[in-house]
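Write out the bound-state structure for adenosine-5'-diphosphate.
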Amino acid sequence: MDNQPFSYVNELMKVINGRGDTRMVIEKFLAALRREFVFDNVATYLQDNETGTLEIVYARAVGRAKNAEADAAWGEDIANQVLAKKQFLIQEPETPSKSEDRVRQAYLLGLPLRADGILNGALVFVRFGGPVYTDEHVAVATLGAELLSVLFERRAWRKMNEELGELKQQIQLQEDFVSTISHELRTPLGFIKGYSTSLLREDTSWDEETQKEFLTIIDEEADRLSLLIENVLESARLQSKTLPLRFQPLRLDAVLRDVSTRIRSRYKNLDVSLDLEASTAIQADGVRIAQVFENLFTNAVKYAPGSAIIVGLKQVGHLLIVTFTDRGPGIPAESLPLIFERFYRVRSEKATGTGLGLYICKQIIEAHRGKIWAESTPGQGTTFFIELPINQIAIT
Ligand code: ADP
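---
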């Protein structure tokens, strides 16, 4: 039995199932199809989801490959007709000429293509000067169009699947956030309510020292609450890109010194060492940059308790690189790519937080055209890196 047709179909399937970007697969596929089905030019059209107009996804013109896509307007008319009639169409010259002009006469074959579960494209072949399309030719071309549709369908599904995965992760983060935030809001509120109720009790009289102690707790917890609310609002503003930045000449070494002095006065026994090169001034928002550094300090205090913190600053080419290193427990490898996501917290984490701090840091650094990332070895510590470009015109 002759199994040649099957091995040919098999080969086409293999190309369709192959890896690579869509253009490359289509190109390989049409080259394979050309072994059994003769054509000069080919164009693939798909409807644009929003405008509904036909867009050229791929076009190949023998000998004119470079401008193939610009030239592929020749197939547009028949492609539109195929879409309207929902079937294959053949357009051949009415009176085949015997003259030399013959080679300019186009024999067109248009076939419907499906993607996204609906008929929304066409595959158009042209032969110059014939031969006419026989039933057998049409059968092979139809098989080609069907297989190409499989490719488009599959790619559309894959894309949808990826989007779904991202959406699921987003929902998970939102859910985690709701439970974190309600806990975070409730804790300070509980303190405020508890201590103020105690102070207001008429059956108890508190000495002045105790009253002061209670009021201090209420004051601190109110600050914590307002910081939390500010963070939530700020992350929303950063996400919608409506947080204004005030750029001015800034020396990072000076900001790092300032912030570390503030942090040292807040955490008296904190071991901070600075290794700062005097740096070129850059255009940056001093308040926001200080906020990023402060966040990295407080994270190190929270998540690497008792550890020394080493802060570095150096210039490498046209970049300033700031590093914050601690010798804490580190971050699990699977969490490392996620810690800058909005609301993300390491699940086993006991320290309080909202998962907004590093997200805010990332947005601020990116608004300065910089990058922020972390490297960590569990059990040994974590280093946060910030890379900021020195502006084209350095300010001295
Ligand atoms: P939050 O501190 O509110 O949880 P962040 O966005 O600041 O949110 O941090 C996200 C997560 O990254 C934290 O939950 C923590 O698990 C982890 N993390 C941040 N800094 C460090 C650090 N220096 N060492 C270990 N883990 C850290």
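---
Residues 135-200 form the longest helix (66 residues).
The chain is about 45% helix and 20% strand.
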